[in-house]
Design brief:
By secondary structure, the protein is an alpha/beta fold. It contains six helices and nine strands; from the N terminus they run βββαβαβααβαβαββ. One of its GO terms (biological process) is positive regulation of transcription by RNA polymerase II.
Amino acid sequence: MGPPLYHLSDLALPSYQGDRWQHSHFYMEFFEIKGAVQDSNPRYHCQDPPTRPLEPLSPSQIGHEGALGLCSALTNFINLSNLTLGLSDNQIGAMGASCLGRALANCINLSNFTLYFGFNQIGDEGASGLYPALANCINLSNLTLELSSNQIGNEGASVLGRALANCINLSNLTLFLDSNQIDTIGVSGLCSGLANCINLSNLALYLQLLQKQFICFGL
């Protein structure tokens, strides 16, 4: 029997804000219930901590309302130190990304954070909306951001760079920004911020510029 199923909004209820939801590990999978009508309150299951590697997830189309429900839950998890979110291909836009950024800004104890957020539509506004999360989580040591195919341009890339400049304790960073709308100006802004991450020992940066030039940086 698998982990229990919940609605996203359930986690915002007082009954779910006890010690059980203050653990240091939190992991969520969003999935599509085949044959069911999609709603704005999708189910998920959680493991604490994960007992198996994260696998590619099918799109669940949680959209804007589902993202807001998730943000309401995450606002309460101020003691998290390890967080993995798989939200790729979910029709999440700039407002959902900004909401997520504000919610995660409270998780100042995060040391390990992985966000799979590719194939949404966050754009420059949504990428900038993630700033509070990255700027406030100064204890991050391991960070993976998968933001491929999100219509992010130079402004969004530069804001991400300024946010990462605050993560001075980062030792391992993997950043996927391929298949966006970034050129050399955006790369310059991003790298200006990364220059402040003086404790980086491992860096993997994946970019595909507007000129169809694919760039992979490694450290």
